[in-house]
C-alpha cells in the first residue's frame, strides 16, 4: 500500500472515531428520546461503516492489481534474461564442442602422419 492509500485508511479510522465520539455527545444533549437518537446514530454509523468497507475493499483490489501487474512485468523480464542467457550458454557450448572436434581431428591427423612415417621407415630398413 502506498502513502496515499494509508492516509485514506487513517482518515477513515479517524473519521469513525470522531463519529462515535460525536454520537456519544449527541445522545447526551439530544432533545429527542434516547432510543430514537441511538437508533438514528446507529444507522448513520452503520452507513459510514459500510462506505468505509467498500472504499477499503476498492483500495485493496487496486493494490492487488498493481502487485499482479508488477509481478507479470518482473516475470517477463526474468524470462527475457533467462532466454538471452540460455542462448549465450548454448552458443558457448557449441563453440566448445567445435573446438574439441577440431582439436581431436588435428591430433588424429598428426597420429596418422606419424604412423605412416614410421611404417615407411620400417619398410626402408627391412
Walkthrough of the structure:
It is built from two helices and no strands. It has helices at 3-29, 34-124. Helix 1 (3-29) runs antiparallel to helix 2 (34-124). The mean pLDDT is 81.
Summarize it.
With 126 residues, the protein is mostly helical. Helices cover 94% and strands 0% of the residues. The mean pLDDT is 81.
List strands and helices in order, with pairings:
Elements: H1 3-29, H2 34-124
Number of continuous helical runs: 2
Helix content: over 70%
**In terms of quaternary structure, what is this?**
single chain
Report the sheet-strand fraction: under 5%
pLDDT < 50 runs, ≥5 residues: none
Cα separation of the termini: 95 Å
Q: How many β-strand runs?
A: 0
**Total domain units:** 1
Element string (H = helix, E = strand): HH
